[in-house]
Specification:
The complex is a heterodimer of chains A (about 170) and B (about 200). Helix content of chain A is about 60%, strand content about 0%. Chain A has about 170 residues and is mainly alpha-helical. With about 200 residues, chain B is mainly alpha-helical. The longest helix of chain B is centred in the last third of the chain and has 32 residues. Chains A and B meet through helix 1, helix 2, helix 4, helix 5 and helix 6 of A and helix 1, helix 2, strand 1, helix 3 and helix 4 of B.
Chain lengths: ~170, ~200
């Protein structure tokens, strides 16, 4: 099943991922997500720090629904971490490092990583999900709206790619 | 009858326990495909590898086909499957910001968790950015909420857009995704051939 580089063939992974996603729909009635967990945890942390945050017009609906630890996506995200960790451990792939192209300064790479995360957070709130919770789940369940998100995201990736060419030099 | 949780076959706590297992399987697949490293994600935008597009396309086709088969046989109630409501304008703007942020950071929320689990410092920094960005969004939500809820279409599925039923939708996305992958592979090959000639 492994290719030369030690990874599964993406088409094989895709079929397995599709089956896992199907199981998720059959069991929970919803597909896997990730961005929702970050939103939910942020709301919880802000609330723990300052309880008046419960009045925030966006986060209120989260906090009204009980603790973050009883949220499906948050629990599932702990699963993603555990599964990823075990898989990387058994494959001998756990290593403290920074992914970047040749000769690119680490500090610049980390600045882009932070900014990208910051921008992506709002993007997932506007789009009601990310690559998993919106693109993958929505496409697999025949949502039409998902394709607006997917085409826009994919297109923007290609449009903005030249700006970040140096960061990804000679990789992949 | 499926889904187990929404039809009341399993309770809230069992559903959470399954969430942990489903998440773990998801994490394993992501790691084994190479998505624990942004080196395997960012190159898609330079036509340098096929991992992301092949994985997403085959996952969508596999899952949607299984859903159609289950629905045909009456095993699952398609209407009980959660589909996020469509908001046209926020989806468009959110998509553009998302794509830009993806090539900027090399991560998306799901893959970053696996990257973090594999020891990637940039994944950790990205996740910190995500948390801060979420707080920022909550903070400015009152100012942008009109836009964030514009173009509302509800549970808007492909059959509502083009007619037909979920079988039509299934044929359509399978053919379109197959065509997309074939075109993408050809573009990638022609770029590679050009480079080899130089």
């Amino acid at each position: 099943m492994n290719q030369k580089d030690g990874y599964w063939h993406p088409l094989v992974s895709g079929v397995i991922l599709g089956i896992v996603l199907f199981i998720s729909f059959m069991v929970a009635g919803q597909g896997m997500g990730a961005s929702g967990a970050f939103a939910r945890v942020t709301a919880q942390l802000a609330y723990l720090y300052d309880s008046t945050f419960a009045q925030n017009s966006y986060a209120a609906k989260y906090l009204f629904n009980g603790n973050a630890l009883s949220n499906w996506t948050v629990v599932e995200t702990f699963g993603i971490f555990s599964g990823g960790y075990l898989s990387a451990m058994f494959a001998g792939r756990i290593k403290q490092s920074i992914d970047k192209g040749d000769d690119y300064p680490s500090y610049k790479r980390l600045i882009w990583a932070f900014l990208g995360g910051f921008i992506m957070a709002g993007a997932t709130r506007l789009a009601r999900g990310c690559t998993s919770g919106q693109a993958l789940d929505g496409a697999a369940t025949f949502s039409a709206g998902t394709w607006i998100f997917m085409l826009a995201a994919f297109g923007a990736g290609f449009v903005f790619a030249p700006l970040f060419k140096k960061q990804w030099k000679n990789i992949g | 009858m499926y889904p187990l949780f929404t039809t009341g076959t399993i309770d809230f706590n069992s559903n959470l326990l399954y969430a942990l297992v489903i998440g773990a399987l998801f994490g394993i697949v992501l790691e084994r495909t190479g998505f624990g490293s942004s080196k395997h994600i960012a190159p898609i935008f330079y036509f340098r590898n096929l991992k992301v597009s092949q994985t997403i396309v085959s996952a969508i086709i596999t899952c949607s086909t299984l859903i159609v088969i289950s629905s045909y046989n009456g095993w699952v109630d398609y209407n009980q499957i959660f589909i996020p409501d469509t908001y046209v304008w926020p989806y468009l703007v959110g998509g553009v910001l998302f794509g830009a942020a993806m090539v900027m950071s090399g991560w998306c929320p799901g893959t970053a968790i696996v990257g973090f689990a594999s020891g990637k410092i940039d994944a950790f920094v990205f996740m910190t950015g995500l948390l801060c960005g979420m707080y920022f969004y909550f903070d400015i939500y009152d100012q942008i909420s009109d836009f964030a809820n514009s173009g509302y279409l509800g549970r808007y599925t492909i059959d509502k857009l083009v007619g037909g039923d979920i079988y039509t939708s299934s044929y359509l996305i399978t053919i379109l995704l197959g065509a997309f992958l074939a075109i993408f592979m050809n573009v990638m090959k022609s770029i590679r051939d050009k480079k080899e000639k130089l």
